[in-house]
Amino acid sequence: MVGAGEACIRPEFIVPKVSGTESSSSDRKSLPKGLKGEGVKNGGGRGNGKEGENGKVDGDGQAVEDGGKPDEVAGKQEQSEKRKKGGQNKKRRAYRQPLSEMICQFVIRETECPLKERCKKSHDRGKFVACKGPDLGSECVNFQLYGRCSYGMACRFGAGHLDSDLRNVVDEEKYEKMKVYEVQKTLLKDLQQHLRSKRVWFGKTLDVFEKCGSVESQNELKQHLEKYRGSKRTKTTARCHSKNNENLNSEVLDVGGPNDNITGCAAVKKDHSSNHAITDKKTDKLSCREVFEEIKNDYYCLQSRPIKKTIDLRGKTFLSPLTTVGNLPFRRICKDFGVDVTCGEMALCDELLQGQISEWALLKRHHSEELFGVQICGNQAFKTAKVCELISSECDVDFIDLNVGCPIDMIFNKGAGSALMDRAAKLESILTGMVASSEVPISVKMRMGTCESRLSAVNLCGRLKKTGISHMVVHGRTRQQRYTKLADWGYISRCREAANPVTLFGNGDILSFEDYNEKLPFADGIMIGRGALIKPWIFKEIKEQRHWDISSTERMDVLKKFTSYGLEHWGSDTTGVEKTRRFLLEWMSFLYRYIPVGVLEVLPQRINERPPWYHGRDETETLMCSANAADWVKLSEMLLGKVPDTFNFTPKHVANSYS
Length: 659
Fold this sequence. Notes:
Structural class: alpha/beta
Distance between the termini: 22 Å
Number of helices: 26
Largest sheet: 9 strands, mixed
Shape: flat
Mean pLDDT: 82
């Protein structure tokens, strides 16, 4: 008999469960030939089906004892254990290759390293080759695609593009033809330097906020003037000092050295006295346009698009922005399966304005992503507006989304993410500023509210549609719920009515085309997140309106494709290989939850259901449904070779609803 929250598995695939958490030797003997030692517990319960110590499960996913409700002590212990299982593994340590084992890029390019002895990477080609380890294959994905691999002798697939002297071979004709398809950097060096020195002119944002009488715009204009004039005074003073030194060294001391010095001081005074020359006499406020005319030669000026973009997403399949696991290679996998709209991982506004490379990397777009947006997170109207102007000017995106649903404490405690749902007026001003400063459409993604007692999404949808945003997304849970319990699509339907005529997408608990069809009447479209992580071919099933009984061989081909995309994106050297492995394993912490169609007795699989102990139809399929991270590492070794001796992996996400 199947319990509440349990998936119906065909009897021939079920492994009898014994006491304890691991299968016994008797369990392994009962497995089909070729699958011994591979019996696994496909861990935990989803939402409405979390198993208690005595095997009973209540409707809300809370374990209960046979005699009724647990006593107070047991309840506290259970809550404590639940808190430990939920959220993120914050103390995990990712594998990092020591710098001494990495070859310097200047050695690969055969140029002189500017750091010389101070460089911490290896400059000894022979020593590096000796400790690099054997190649993982003879075909480099970068060389095959573009005719050139920028990692040279550091490439772990270098046999295909290195000569006998370990010099890099380049197919010039192929590279010239294919280099236009390479994923371009989103942050150029020149822009990064100007961002770090705060010498970027956000003209559109300053103009918008100046008209509103904003204090932030006036403060920024003053800072720009002080910085510009301060650097001018420094240069002028430096020139005066150099002249004075020359005069002091001359035999005749009254050649005009003091006069030169006075002239220099007068120049500084004159420059200082002109501070108020560009202020409005009536209001004593700095003029945006006139400040720009003075400092423009020393600043990076953002260029505006000639025409503002517009998009229509109705009826399109939409991949949710997913932190860590929603990387570019994963989005390419989803594109291969037919998703229409993709969105990058959440990027923080402060880090983008500081020119952090790791944050700007989240904005990269592959040429196959026909409709692509980025998601930002911030809590100040002036900063989010600046980021929108910056992204729409410098990046190739179709829309910018504001995250108003992130439940993570670090974000929430700063007043960003889902914390903005309790501050409607502030959220309204943020979105108004973003729309005014951006050349691409603006959207917002939110939850129902921060908790059950403060459901604010319906009210917000009614207010935010007046800001000029392109579309909204509502996830049918509160911040407090995280991913426990089922999404409330009835509430999403109310949000749709309040948001009309703005397009509203619903989000939550879609794992099959039947779920999609059932929930589509509640919204103008559906965004899919965890369902795509568990089975990215869900988009193919939705388009073809059928269940796909994908084999283990076909699933392995998907993983191979991901590793190829990863090596192309993160690099084919040791660092790139291990980064690809890490993100592959992060994805597998969701992917193993998929139950094959041929194993299920009742279709479709529901996202809140957990399977009992079962084995697959072959050894690889059994390995793929394992909840043990060690088995995921085995799969990664089939694709990327043996892991380093010091390698360890702990998944980032510990799902509340799937232990």
